[in-house]
Amino acid sequence: MRTQIFSNKVCIVTGGASGLGREMAKQLAASGASVVLADINEAAAQEVAAEIAQTGGSATAIHVDVTDAKSVQALVESTAAAFRRIDYLFNNAGNAIGGEIRDLSLEAWRRVIETNLFGVIHGVHFAYPIMVRQGAGHIVNTCSVFGMAPVPLNSPYVASKFAVFGISHALAAEARAFGVDVSVICPGYLQTAMINHMDAVNASTKDVVAQIPVKLVPVQRAAQIVLAGVAHKQAVIAFPAYVSILAFIHRFLPKLFMRLGLRQVERFRSIRHAAVNWKTAADIAGH
Predict the structure, then answer these.
(1) Is 233 helix (H, G, I), strand (E, B) or coil?
(2) Structural contact between residues 159 and 100, judged by C-beta atoms closer than 8 angstroms
(3) 142 and 90 in contact (C-beta within 8 Å)?
(4) 88-91 vs 137-142, strand pairing mode
């Protein structure tokens, strides 16, 4: 990684208290960046900031709820006031709820989409104008393999990440003339707390994780790949190799992609618990 790229840069990392955000923040600080750790779990963010300080790095922890526009506005404005600029914004905060669409509540949809999609929108809305005025900056949006290949059983996450993928490309075209770069991160399955503690509707998290058909990427390695891609201003940072393969199959071999999806659904239904309140169309029609 070209570590000198991040030396003396000001970097906001949302979701910086755990997972990929935590690891990126630590590596950015080790490269000489001033890192603002933004997370809804302020205590955990403070712990990460203390770890970074112990190794000689610079980090500040701030409580932020990315679903709240005013909270994100305060984050961006306080960072700009303290450092006089914002060089990198890593829109990384996210969550997921697994399960079949028939079992999902509207609250589940809103919770995932408000965090994953509006968290990005809020970050862009407040940080992008500052970068335009600066004539420089880099926005990095965390997407997923699910933003390139719409697999079943995680539909709120898929919906939010497809939107993030699209927004990132649209913004990149608009931002180029102002000296602002945009990257979108599309990793596969990472070894993070989101995987180990993911909410699963009508199935145990342990059983769902056991069905993941690929090896999880260590989060430290994932952060190295991401930051190397950002340093080289890659528009799309997709890894491991199966991410690009799945995206290719989805686009050019849709029948094969459907067969893979059907197989995945069949396997999930072998561990799915009976839904307590599920009503069929016939039940609803009878009322």
Answers:
(1) coil
(2) no
(3) yes
(4) parallel
Give the phi and the psi of residue 189 in degrees, each rounded to 5. Answer: -75, 125
Superfamily covering domain 3-275? NAD(P)-binding Rossmann-like Domain (3.40.50.720)
Express each pLDDT in 118-176 by its tens digit.
999 999 999 999 999 999 999 999 999 999 999 999 999 999 999 999 999 999 999 99
Q: Which long-range contacts does 205-210 make (Cβ < 8 Å, 24+ apart)?
A: 205/98, 207/271, 208/98, 208/268, 208/271
Contact between 164 and 184 under an 8 Å Cβ cutoff? The reply is yes
Q: Give the single-character DSSP code of 154.
A: B
Active-site annotation, residues: 157
Overall residue count recorded for the chain in this entry: 287
pLDDT on residue 194: 75
163/64 Cα distance (integer angstroms): 22
Nearest to 102 by CA among 239, 287, 277: 277
- What does DSSP assign to residue 115? H
